[in-house]
Amino acid sequence: MEFRDSYDLRFGVITVLVGMVVATFGLMRWGNEWYYERKLGGIRQFLPPGDMGWPLIGNMLSFAVSFKKGHPDSFIETLHTRFNRTHIYKSHMFGSPSVIVTSPEACRKVLMDNETFGPGWPKAVTILLGDKGFHGITNEEHRRLRRLTAGSLSGQEALSFYIEYIKDIAVTSLKDLSEKEKPIELLTEMRKNAFNIIMYIILGIETSPELEKLEKEYHLLTHALKAMRINLPGFAYHRGLRARKKLIKKFGSLVEQRRVSLENKQTKGKRFMVDLLMETEEDGKKLSNQEIVDLIIIYLLAGHESFAHASTWVLINLLEHPQYYQLAKDEQEKIVKKRVSVEDSLNLAEIKQMEYLSKVIDETLRLANLSFTLFREAKTDVHMNGYTIPKGWKVLPWIRSVHMDSQNYKNPNVFNPSRSEDNTSKGAGMFMPFGAGSRLCPGMNLAKLEICIFLHYFLLHYKLERLTPYGKVAYIPITRPSDNCIARIQKLSSI
């Protein structure tokens, strides 16, 4: 009898403690929600469904768990399940009260409507990339800088000029990689190639050991962009800040050297992007060295990460799907056979003929989701889908959700380059790997050009042997093979 009484007492105490813990956690979550909504007045009743998570960290814990555990889509799927698939949810993400939108229509509106939604990048991103870059400036300044740089990144003349240089890097690197005795990290090598190309386009600097050191620093910077803002040794954000200081010092020196050369009329031949950025505009405005350095860092992000990761994933996807690999290879062989002379080199007209390869690249970008979300901020109270987004709240168009929703794409986890022939796919807002609207990624055309050139020579002359096929995938800060794709590149024929 005494034993039973003792057991009941212990059970009762445990039950009370558990109840207290649950109540405390519930009170903390309620308090966090009240803190951010208390000043909204009557708007509160029109907020989208959702919750604000825990004090300080908001919903970042559930976000991090889903992405780090290898189930990134479960984060949004949980919201759909809990709140009846409204496609718009209140939350607290990346340090701010936020609204997540997941439908193609809502995402497109947020990205296209510059009058209602302004840039809303997290403070950490602004610090790491600089407050003079594309991501944080006003719409007027954004249009101005796009006008200054568009020709050097996406103009037909510029792209045609870059082909030969990109080709030389692709041919040389593939040859060198195929001759290595030890396996390589394919993604790491692609990063190096991308960095060399974009540095040439921006500053006219060709491949060198110094560039390799700068690329490593830039990798640390980009790795910190989606990390928690903890400025302590050992954390990614701290390493990113240190890398930024080194890059600013080096890029600042290069920009100043170029400016002096231009002023003294010592430059000859091809003009590079930095030359355009230094020009005085009609209204007398002139970019400072700091503004130019911030733009260099932004354009490196656009041309560096997109090419490196997309190229790696294209090769992995083709390796895992031989039927699509053969179709892509056949297309490249047909292009070569049409040439009048065997000495003719790849040109822009031929790249435009790569219709199937373009589908392969687009399908890869849809699956990889190199940017799972973008960041905007409501300039005023916004009414959307029957709810109100308060002025000043961040708005996150969740691009990954659009690309991976079975209502938008049949069997979304399956790699299928031919799905673009289906009229139900790629409608308005259905395909946005580079964003949308006036703030569309400025390096999009250049990145796709680089990918096409590299794959042209790879498909014609090489094959990939991955040493850890179907290996694990990491999703933070960007979707990538956890081992950076350890592989061998084998040469099939002489170039």
TrEMBL record:
It is found in: Membrane. Pfam families: p450 (PF00067). Keywords: Heme, Iron, Membrane, Metal-binding, Monooxygenase, Oxidoreductase, Transmembrane, Transmembrane helix. InterPro entries: Cyt_P450, Cyt_P450_CS, Cyt_P450_E_grp-I, Cyt_P450_sf. Its cofactor is heme. Heme binds at residue 441. Belongs to the cytochrome P450 family. This is Uncharacterized protein.
